[in-house]
Amino acid sequence: MTLKKVNPDLEKERSTCTFNIEELTNLLDTGAHCTAERRAVEDKVFSVKELKDEIPDEFLSHKERYENAIRKSVFLHKVLQETGVKRGVYNRSDKSDFRTTYYSIFKDGSPFMLQYSMFVPTILGQGDSEQVELWYKRALNMEIIGTYAQTELGHGTFIRGLETEAVYDEKTEEFILNSPSLSSYKWWPGGLGHTTNYCIVMAQLKIKGKPYGMQPFIVQIRDEETHMPLPGVKVGEIGAKLAFNTVNNGFLGFEHVRIPRRHMLMRFSQVSKDGKFTSSANPKLAYGTMVMVRVTIVNSAATYLSRAVTIAIRYSAVRHQSKLKQNEPEPQILDYVTQQHKLFIGIATSHAYMFCSYWLWDVYVMYQKEQNVGNFDRLPELHALACCLKVISSSDCTGLVEKCRMSCGGHGFMMSSNLPQLYGISTATCTYEGENTVMLLQTARALVKAWELGSRGRPFSPTMSYFAEKNVPSKWDSSLEGILNAFQKVSIGKLSSSVSSLQEYTKSGLSAEDAWNKASVQLIGAAEAWGRAVVLSIYKSEIERYGQTVSPALKSVLFDLVELYYVHLTLEKMGDLLLYTQLSEKDVVSLRKKYEDLLEKIRPNAIGLVDAFDYRDEVLNSTLGSYDGFAYERLMTEAMKSPLNAEPVNQSFHKYIKPLMKGKL
Ligand SMILES: CC(C)(COP(=O)(O)OP(=O)(O)OC[C@H]1O[C@@H](n2cnc3c(N)ncnc32)[C@H](O)[C@@H]1OP(=O)(O)O)[C@@H](O)C(=O)NCCC(=O)NCCSC(=O)CCCC(=O)O
Ligand SMILES: Cc1cc2nc3c(=O)[nH]c(=O)nc-3n(C[C@H](O)[C@H](O)[C@H](O)COP(=O)(O)OP(=O)(O)OC[C@H]3O[C@@H](n4cnc5c(N)ncnc54)[C@H](O)[C@@H]3O)c2cc1C
Predict the structure, then answer these.
(1) How many Å apart are CA 261 and CA 368, to the nearest integer?
(2) What number is the ipTM of this complex?
(3) Measured from the CB, is residue 428 less than 6 Å from ligand 2?
(4) Is 190 annotated to bind ligand?
(5) 475-482: which pairs have CB atoms within 8 A and are 24 or more residues apart?
(6) Residue closest to 534 by CA, chosen among 466, 451, 458
(7) Fold exhibited by the domain 145-280
(8) Would you give the DSSP letter of residue 417?
(9) Alpha carbon of 284 to ligand 1 centroid (Å)
(10) Do residues 99 and 29 make contact, with C-beta atoms less than 8 angstroms apart?
């Protein structure tokens, strides 16, 4: 038997873990059977030699990277098909599908990404049964590859401002798609550049000169045999970006392109042969795919962070620097409490959003069932939750991914650490699927509406039910329940103050719109505060629920993280709490001590906690974060892959440097 070689620092760390790592992995995977299934798929995927990169992606040209990503996407599709994986990729019907870790074989995203995440879900969500039957099968077999083309050069946020038109021609029973201006060109859809041959186009429907709002159309853009753009279709790639460079985001314009009437997805709204429009029960149903994707982003954000924190904590355990005590060797940098302060909150935040994402997914599935029988009552609350949790998960996790990168010092700046790429794909979540400020304003709109209705006696929806409580001052209480209560007070305080400002501004003569704009900094604060109260509440209640079934050792460490999360947020938001609750300086002093004690308590479990995320080396893709902890050896091996290291002297020396040295330039 050959013994696995592991850096002694990591061996030591693993020996201090107080809980069963596998038990936590199973919990994060939503069940032992899900862990087993995930690992079985990973075994398959990572054994396919075509899915391995010979040369690191960052040394390839833009074109080569794209071609490599296509090659890998095709092999991945094939192996997943053989493995029988459909869930998660095509239709997330189960939350266990969230940990599709094999997707990390694309450091910068797959050009097939939108096929799985939005094209197919839109067919399923917006098509009527006949359309689903036709298009879903074709997409499932990859006979057609599609994307979701909504954003235009001129408008992404303001969907009502989209300019792409779909004009119905009842004589031929066709829609005519047209891009009337440069700003109406679609811009951003993943895979659109050179990969997809179909797409969902969100366009303004017009019948006999009358507008009927944005509707989804399924449009063929390239020939299925030659892949040439069809007549009247202008399509290409938008160029290099901060990240997503292998996603092949594209542009698209139409010059009077005709598509059959039945290519409008007609589950909710219909256009009859003679041009009669039947409106959906709720016009916002056309925005359904966005709600679904926002819900799933909460999990993606948590996942990116959990990868970054695994890398940073493992590296911090093997990296030694400076002196803590003069006569002792250089300590592991993880022994510096400032380092623990940067990183342990990353573990807790990742747990918080992961457990919240599972809860939110259940809320979404429940709503779907109700929607199927014509009940849309919960849509406003779901929309507000999806917007707000998308925002705070993406911004918190991205901030912490960057913190992980910085916590690795210079080596965290290496592409081979994979931290820069993780930051790139993570920060994209702050922009796509609804820019974060805009999503907070949507949340605020729902909160203000609920507040005003509430003041007229209407009941609050479950996540806003605490609005009904009188905001009477009470003694500060540092228990979890007490802190949650305090954050709810902050949320009530900020919302009530925003509403007062709105009322004052309108009383002073401003229009409702100008009053809203003037108070909007307060409004996004109120929206964020509601989101914080929701996450604190759900994270705690989910861990209390799981705490009843897991071992006492795991329960204890899960609660250490919940406490860390609560106390960290309390110290971060001290200003708000001082304003809206009875928090005193004395309480802050004791909370700081509590925080320092918690860091100390979590320290022996730090490596165990990140091991429990169960990211194999192929998933982490990082010189700094490998399971064995041999960071320096890996850094050197990767550096030797630089094409510049293939020859001792580069030709530019003879061409430029030498003439310069000899004064012969
Ligand atoms: C900002 C808004 C919400 C404004 O929309 P609007 O029609 O102008 O709305 P309004 O007239 O102000 O009315 C608001 C009203 O509509 C409701 N509403 C808005 N959105 C939804 C929804 N999704 N579900 C359910 N309800 C929704 C709001 O709550 C308002 O309701 P109310 O009037 O207050 O009762 C919208 O334009 C929007 O969602 N913009 C963001 C665009 C976006 O998310 N694009 C995503 C493109 S795809 C993408 O990025 C893919 C990336 C994926 C990847 O690469 O992986
Ligand atoms: C990596 C990536 C992938 C993408 N993939 C797709 C895709 O597959 N398909 C697709 O259709 N789209 C896609 N998009 C587009 C994306 O959805 C939009 O970029 C996003 O919704 C933001 O819209 P915008 O670009 O118009 O930003 P803008 O709205 O122009 O935002 C610019 C600034 O204006 C502010 N602002 C705008 N409106 C308001 C307001 N009402 N109140 C206050 N402030 C406001 C914003 O807060 C922001 O600070 C992608 C984008 C990225 C970055």
Answers:
(1) 27
(2) 0.99
(3) yes
(4) yes
(5) 475/582, 476/581, 476/582, 476/583, 476/584, 476/587, 478/587, 478/590, 478/591, 478/594, 480/540, 480/562, 480/563, 480/566
(6) 466
(7) Butyryl-CoA Dehydrogenase, subunit A; domain 2 (2.40.110)
(8) G
(9) 8
(10) yes
What single DSSP character describes residue 117? I
pLDDT tens for residues 58-93? 999 999 999 999 999 999 999 998 888 764 343 445
Number of residues written out for the chain: 665
Main-chain dihedrals φ then ψ at residue 621, nearest 5 degrees: 55, 40
- Token pair belonging to 108: 């910068």
Give the C-alpha separation, 63 to 367, whole Å. Answer: 43
**Alpha-carbon distance values, 442 to 117, 229, 382, 438, 462 (Å):** 23, 38, 12, 6, 18
**SS3 state at 200:** strand
Tell me the three state secondary structure of residue 48. Answer: coil
Q: Is the CB of 112 inside a 6 Å radius of any atom of ligand 1?
A: no
Cβ of residue 116 lying under 6 Å from some atom of ligand 2: no
pTM greater than 0.95: yes
Answer for the pair 247, 110: CB distance below 8 angstroms, yes or no: yes
Contacts of 414 (CB under 8 A, 6+ apart): 420, 623, 624, 635, 638
Instruction: Report residue 493 as tokens.
Output: 């305080």
Candidate list 433, 528, 542, 563, residue with the active-site label: 433
Query: Which atom of ligand 2 sits closest to the CA of residue 241?
Result: 1
170-199 pLDDT, tens digit per residue, is 999 999 999 999 999 999 999 999 999 999
Ligand-binding annotation for 236, yes or no, is no
The whole-angstrom separation of Cα 114 and Cα 122 is: 11
Q: Is 633 marked active-site?
A: no
Contact 128, 332 (CB under 8 A): no
Which of 117, 143, 251, 126 is closest to 198 using CA atoms? 143
436-475 pLDDT tens trace:
999 999 999 999 999 999 999 999 999 999 999 866 778 9
Q: Which of 155, 187, 297, 433 has most ligand 1 atoms within 8 Å of its beta carbon, as the pocket-test mutant?
A: 433
How confident is residue 642, by pLDDT bands cut at 50, 70 and 90? very high
Query: CATH 2.40.110.10 in the chain, residues?
Result: 145-280
For the CA of 293, the nearest atom of ligand 1? 53
Angle at 400 between CA 394 and CA 402, to 5 degrees: 100
Q: Whole-angstrom Cα distance, residue 398 to residue 529? A: 19
Residue of 523, 477, 517, 475 lying closest to 497 (CA atoms):
523
The ligand 1 atom nearest the CA atom of 244:
55
Burial class (CB in 10 A: 0-12, 13-18, 19+), 232: middle
> If you measure from the C-alpha of residue 610 to the centroid of ligand 2, how many angstroms do you get, rounded to a whole number?
33
| Nearest ligand by distance to the CA of 150 | 2
